[in-house]
Each structure stands twice: as C-alpha cells, then as structure tokens.
Amino acid sequence: MRFWWLSFLPLALFARGELGVYNQVYAYNGESGTAWEETRTTLTYFENVFEPYLVLEPNERVRFTCGVGVVVPFQQEYPISDVFIRVQTRITLTPYMWLYLGSLEKDHQFIEPMLDPLTEFIPRIRVISLSQVPIDYEVFPKGRFSHGFYEYGAQLRWQDRWVRGEIYMNWQLADTPDHRERFDVGLIQEGIGVLPVYGAFHYWHNGGHEHEHLVGITENYVGAVGWEFPQVGKRSGIYYLVSYFLPDRDERPELNVFGQALYTRWEFALGNWRFIPHVFMTSSWISEKEQFISIEGDPFYRVPFYAGLNLRYEQEIAPGTVLQVGFVNGVFLPNTRDPYDWKMIRYDQLIRADLRYTFASWE
User: Which residue ranges form the domains of the chain, and what is each CATH number?
Assistant: First the structure.
C-alpha cells in the first residue's frame, strides 16, 4: 500500500489532469488582556501546511482531487502534528451548480460572528475555554480542538451573475466511548436577484446514541440576515443575528439560551491595504437572560459589546504566491455590569504566505 498513488497512473492516461503542490505557512498570535473565559484564551500558531495534490478530469462534468496535507508546527516537541487526506469528487450538475463529495471547499462566506476566520487556514483550532465548546466531561485522546481548514462531507454550491450560495454538511467526530459525535450544517445565500441581501444559517450538533454520555445532545442554531453594500467592499453591510443554544436538549431545557445581535462591518481599500471597522452589540443590554452564542463563531462575538478596526495587507509577491499581513484589533465589554477596563482589549497579529504551484498539466 506504500505506492497506492500509482493506481492513478492508468486513469491519468485517459483524463485531463494536474499535478501540483499547495503550501501555506503562517504565524498567528491571538492576544486579549482579560476575560479569557468569555472570549478566547491567548493562542499562538507557527505552522506550515504542505499539500501535494493530483487533479483528474475524466470528462467535463467530473473532477477528482486527491492530496495529502502535512501540518508541521515550528516547535520542538512534535516535528509533525497532523496528516489530513484531501479526497474530493466535484460533479457539475448545471453550468451554475456544483456538487462536492468528500473534502469540502473552505471559502464559506459566513460573517465572523457565525464562523471563526481562523478556520479558513488553521487545520485544528485549540479549544481551551469551555465557553467555546461545552465538552468539559468528554475525553479527547489527541487534544481538545475545533475543526479548521480541512472539512469532510457533502456540499452543494451555486453561482450566476447576481447571486451565489451553498449548503453543506461537515462531519467532524464520530460517537465513541470517549466523546459524542459532532457535525455542523451551513446554508448561505448572497443576493436575491439584483438585491444585495445576505442570508445565512448555521447548525452545530454534539450528540449521538451509540454510547452512553452524561449529556445526550447539545445543539446550537445561528441565523443572520443583512443588507450589503458591495460597492464599498466585500462583506460590507449591516446584519441582524439570532442564536439559540441548547446545552442539554433532552434533559435540561431550562438551560436553553436565546440571543440576538446587531453587527456592522465595512471594508475600505487603499492600494493593497484593507481597513475594516466593525461594531457588534447583543441583546444582553435589553435582558440579562439573553446571550448571543455561536459555538463556531469568533468567540469575541459573544460578549455584549465588541468594536474595533482590523487591518490587512495582501500582495502577490510571485506568480501563485500571496503574502498577507493582518492585525485584528478591538475593545470589548465581557458583561453589562462592569465598566470598561483598559485590559478589555484584543490585539491579534498574522503573517501568512500562500503558494500554489503546478508541476505538470496535461490534456
């Protein structure tokens, strides 16, 4: 089985194809001054993701991709931390609709309160704060993580001149004696006709019936509607969000939490720089019984108030290679009772390089 990839060679003789490598290297440092349980514990990542891949297209409607992503962290304890298999079949249903089976396309167009931007490039996100994922009684042999860059399941996408969207299911964990199963479902629609309307829904499930667990099923529902201004910049708009969190759906309904939020973000371009002011406020100011909770969203979008200015610089430094430098900045209030303190700040830094190189292609 060592040379399993040789089995693809006969197929390559009868199909269009491509052989290449995808590589991303990044340094990300996330900092906040206080309220780690309410937001996110300080996290640092220095990693390299190296993924050689093979693409085969036996005809115009089917494309098969196979690759192996190796995650190399820059630290002394583990020279290689993870290996992820990419295996994807894409079927073109119509000129405007595609079905993906296996590995999913990762550029989900969720706003930050619904999906943490770290999932777009970090393979596994360390979860330390139990407020992020309520899994305090479960055992994870390889550590407590949220999913990240690699997703597996099924995905349907559509796009034409005016609109685009997708629906997908991402399978994360199986139900074992150590922990419950976990998966999430997403639905995103950008545009209705010529109207710049944004709509999104995300469902997160932690449960299963194959083994006994202290808690049966935990669920999280998050929805958003918004009006966008594409003439200003990508994801510039005003959004209304609702959430419903069920920590123990079947046995403890009194623990269920409903929440609402208003969110606005704007993206202004100046050369290769992007300036992104953002303001987020929840219904906790109206009722202390309400709290906006998005399990897979950026954890800073759970506090009653969060606002700031993000900066991002992007430049193609060589064909197929993009350099990105980013700063995520903000101030927040962890609750509605205590006044602002100078420690209630967030200051994350990112430097990242993406490279995609094609060694060979054939018709």
Answer: 4-362 (2.40.160)
